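Here is this case:
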Amino acid sequence: MEGVGLHSGGRITLLVRPGREGIVFVREGVSIPGTPANVVDTRLNTTLGSGGTTVSTVEHFMSALYGLGITDCEVEVSGPEMPAFDGSALPLFTLLREAGARDIPGEAPEICLPHPVSVEEGDSWIRADPGGFSISYEIEFPSRAIGLQRYHYDGTDYGGRIAPARTFGMLRDVEMMRAAGLALGGSLENAVVVDDDRVLNPEGLRFADEFIRHKVLDLLGDLWLMGAPLIARIRAHRASHRLHVALARAVLDAVRPQERGVS
């Protein structure tokens, strides 16, 4: 796969190979396991790193892996970030589905909570409770084109309901990021751009609530860093990549005593 990096603006090539050691990103010969422990930055995206080598914006790719149930592969990246494609997970989901996957012998892992887990930052929070899988997400933006949106996802039809939802940003924020040398590859071809009550993309939205669906997409990708599906009722309010990853780390801390046989 080949595409443009959202922030660098450079052409980036991906090569995805079968793996047996979880999800591992490889850049310049350095292997970076896709785990919460290797997240080194969560500003605007989720960045993995090891020994000074980083790969940014991994969340859409990880989300596509969630949608396909892929727990093991090696991802060779030619640049500092993942290609943006159209700003959603759909191109990645489609190509990976066409490539196909095979079962690895052994039990399919699942992560089940022994007790509720929550993380918060200001008025933003995420809570996971033991129980069957679901996500209830809520966002609220001052932009009238977004406003208050809620979405409930029960884990079905990822390819139709979640994968097509594109990343989004405010026009004023895009202008500031470009002034700071970021979002150099961003365009209306790989993001939804909003200016108060207007969506600037000529084709409009793919869903009336595309913004909140993309937040669910991001959360699924960030939680897939745990390497297995989290079976829990998840509620999120105005959360971010920072909180997504914090929840993943808190969940792993909660289940580790069980793995060691400690009550």
Q: What stands out?
A: The chain has a mean pLDDT of 92. The first strand starts at residue 2 and ends at 4. The domain at 2-259 is CATH 3.30.1700.10 (lpxc deacetylase, domain 1).
